[in-house]
Amino acid sequence: MTLRLWMSALVIVGVTNVNGAAVRAHGTVHTRLARVNGRLATSPRDPSLWVMRASLHREHRDLDSAQRDLDHALALDDRHHDALLARAGLALARQRYDETIDRCRDLIDHSPDDAGATLILARALTASGQLESAFDSYERVIELLPRPAPDLFLEQARVARRAFPNHPYLAAWSLEAGVERLGPIVSLVLPLIELEVASELYAVAEARVDTLLRQSTRAGRWLVLRAEIRLAAGDHELARNDAALAIESLGSSKRRPGSKLTTQLLERANRVVIESHLNLEKQP
C-alpha cells in the first residue's frame, strides 16, 4: 500500500474507530509512532509524515498533539490534501460541526470527487441535525466509491429514518442499494427485513430470509427469523413448523449448545411455537 493510500485510509477510518485488526497488523500505536518519529528525524520537511503522526496521535486520543502535527504539515504545504482532510476529521472528532462542514466544503470545491471529504461532511451534517443534506452527501460518497463499505449504507438508512420518518421506504431504498452493490450481506439484509416487516411486506421479507437460508450452513438462525415473519403475517401453522425445524437444527448445531446466541434463538423459537399454537387454538 502506498503512503498516500495508507494515509487516506487512516484519515477516513479515524472519523469513527480504528479497526482493531488493522491496529494489530501494523503494531501498537507507540511502536508505529516510534517508526514515524525515526523517519521525521531524517525527513522533517515531509508533510505526509506529519499527517501520519497526527493520525497516530488521534488514534491514541491525543487530539492536541494531532492538531499540532497537522498545523506543522500545513505550514510546510498549505494545500496538502491529506492534511486538510485530517484537519476536517479532527474538527469532527472535537464536535466542531460548523468548522468541519466549512473545511469539507472547501475541499469539495477544489475537488468535487473527494470521497473522504464528502464522507466527513455527511457525518458532520448528521451530527448537526442537517439530515436531508446529510442523506444527499451519503448518496454522493456511495456514488464516488467503487465498493462502499456496508456501514455507509447503514449510516444513510439511519439518517433516512430520522430525516423522513413518514417515508420508511427511503431507508429501505438505501439498504436495498447496498444489497444490490455488495450482495446479500447480513448486516444490510437484517435491518432491511426489519423495515419490510414493519411495513407488512411479509412476502418480500420472507424471500430475503430464503436467500440467507440457501447461503448458510447453519439454518437455525434463519428458520427462527422466518418463523417470526410468518407469525407476524398470520401464517401460524407455517410459523410453528419453522420454529420446530429451528429447534431441531439448533439442537444439532456445531455451536456450543449452551452459547448465548443458541440460547436466545431457542427462546425465540419456543416463543413462536407457543404463540402460533395459541392462535391456532383460537381458530374455529
Provide an overview of this structure:
- 37% of the residues are buried.
- The chain has helices at residues 3-13, 20-25, 29-42, 47-59, 63-76, 81-93, 97-110, 115-127, 131-144, 150-163, 168-182, 186-198, 202-215, 220-232, 236-251, 260-282.
- It starts with a helix and ends with a helix.
- The longest helix is centred in the last third of the chain and has 23 residues, at 260-282.
- Mean pLDDT is 89; it is low at 1-26.
- By secondary structure, the protein is an all-alpha fold.
Give the structure's gist in a few sentences:
With 284 residues, this protein is mainly α.
Layout of secondary structure:
Blueprint (H helix, E strand, L loop, with lengths): L2 H11 L6 H6 L3 H14 L4 H13 L3 H14 L4 H13 L3 H14 L4 H13 L3 H14 L5 H14 L4 H15 L3 H13 L3 H14 L4 H13 L3 H16 L8 H23 L2
Spans of at least 5 consecutive residues with low confidence: 1-26
Q: So how many helices?
A: 16
Compute the number of strand runs: 0
Report how far apart the termini are: 68 Å
Query: What would you report as the Rg, rounded to the nearest angstrom?
Result: 24 Å
> Helices and strands: which structural class?
mainly alpha
Helix content: over 70%
> What's the story with the biggest beta sheet?
none
How much of the sequence lies in strands comes to under 5%
What is the overall pLDDT average? 89
Shape field:
elongated
Please trace the helix and strand order, writing H or E for each element: HHHHHHHHHHHHHHHH
